[in-house]
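pasting for ref. prot 1 ->
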Amino acid sequence: MEIRHLVTFKSIVDMGGFSRAAVHLGYAQSTITAHIQALEQELGVPLFDRIGKKVQLTDVGENFLVHAIEMIQLYTKAKDVFQMENEEVVTLKIGAPESLTIYRLPQIIQAFRSQNPKVNILMKSGSCWELQDELRRGDLDIAFFLQAPLTDSDLYMETLIEEPLVILLPPESDTRILSSFKLNTNENIILTEQGSYRDYFEAFLRSKGIATESGMEFWSVEAIKQCVMCGLGISMLPLVTVQSEMQQNKLKIINWDTNLGSVSTIMSWHKNRWQSRAARTFMEVVREQSPLWNHVFK
């Protein structure tokens, strides 16, 4: 039983088919098929049901997937130990949403790389739920989330800091307060990606009789800020993402009431995935640096 065959098997499951796995792994589709045939011949049972163009795991395939992931992780562990001991280059795969990638992680990465120049860092941006799925699949070493604290049966969740939220107003906007908030005429609602603080914002607006169905959705923090600054509408973002614009009077804000909901920056890793020395060192740097995040402009 070869590791590459197990990797192919897992990739078919992750990617949702043989052809997508072939593209993902850089193989010809015939190679993918040969890998699975070799596994099925060795095990003596089919791993996939092939129904037309669809493939789905058999019951045996579902059970075997758990063991395949464990074997791949054990192989990765052995390889990482060898590489670290021989000072070879290793890659640390880290996931985070855009806001944390831009406003929280650069200083941490700089501090880590200054002490560990041989460790490559591969950053993956995505939504919190996408990154959680990638952690569960073993595709990431560490992930950072910006959401309400939660528990997960597969993942460790370490809360680093509660992130204050603010409602953003254009710089020429009238002064408003949360308790008597109203939407001005022709003022648009600009929504960020799905997640905890968008849910809070929409619930708040609905409580004020403001419909959110016609809101405009942007997945970029920078795009949202530019839209608000040019007077297109209002939005909600974590305070850390707008401190520079506030100092330059490019935005007005309304401080959010945490009784209406709060979010935190959370560091997460898989409970059953072996952590390389590089990953453990990176997490220690995060724990050293994150207390400095409390010193923010307000």
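and prot 2 ->
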Amino acid sequence: MTDTTNNDAEATADDKRKQPERDIWSPRKRKLVRWSRALSTRLLWVVGVILFALIYFWPSIFVTIHSGEVGVMYRRFDGGTVTDKPVPEGFYYVPPWDKIHVYNARIQEYHYSMTTLTLEGIAIELEVSVRWRPVYELVGLLHKNVGPDYKEKVIQPEIESALRRIIGSHPVEKIYRDATTVAARVLERSLEKAQQNYLEIDEVLIRSVKLPEKLQAQITAKMVEKERLETYEFRKRVAEEEVARLKTEAKGVKQYNEIVAKSLKDPNVLQWQSVIATKE
């Protein structure tokens, strides 16, 4: 019994000695826990802001230039638009204060309709197709001096202007019959202006020419009649050539018969023929 009492007394004494140590470390631990929690919260906020900024600016700071495209670099603090070095295909990191403008470098095609007047003042509707592409080495100048909407600023106005000038100087029948020649002249006139604006026009096509119905019927009938006349002239020319050939052939046969007839009257030829007959 005495031993048990002594043990309890010793345990109580030990607890009393450890109690001051616990009292000393508990405030420090609480401060450390509070500090770590505050730091964690701040870190979470910082990481969240960084992730949000990265996601928000991703399309502008990580740029992919795909096959058939070319880029133009704009440096906000280093001279602006870079005009002498197009950005080739690939994946690029771009600082948030700079930007890469991407252009389609392939041949592109544009269809549209327009109405214009012929030499007689007749309104016709055209279906036009234009094929073009930017000049690769000059795409920086194209971006700086014209802009991404160069189709509306340069290509369509120039083609329409050339079409109006050329069609306005031709009669409607010629345009209806020979739209290919008209398109070739439009292309020729448009090339120089397009090259001045850093573009290359590959082809201009007039896909269809729509006339007033009555006028179109008249021109079609005239074209059919002209085709018949040309067919008749062709057949006539063939017949005349055949007559000339037969005359030449008959003349040759006549000359041959005359030569043979003269030879039959020659005594020497007759004697020679008799010798050949005797031998046989």
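The two ends are 175 Å apart (CA to CA).
The helical segments are 2-61, 139-145, 150-167, 172-177, 179-196, 213-264, 267-279.
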